[in-house]
Please model this.
Amino acid sequence: MAIDLSRPEQEFLVALLQEELDEVRSEFHHTQAFDYKETLKEREALVRGLLAKLKA
Model:
């Protein structure tokens, strides 16, 4: 699937994903539940992948 985005739309999505990445990192460091940490690791990988695609 391909999505055509304008430059402002792309920049907006990158900013949102960067905020999400910061939030996930913070949450990861504050939780002690192993299962939840694994979920957060998966979420971080997903966000990083999306950021890489948007910045390409």
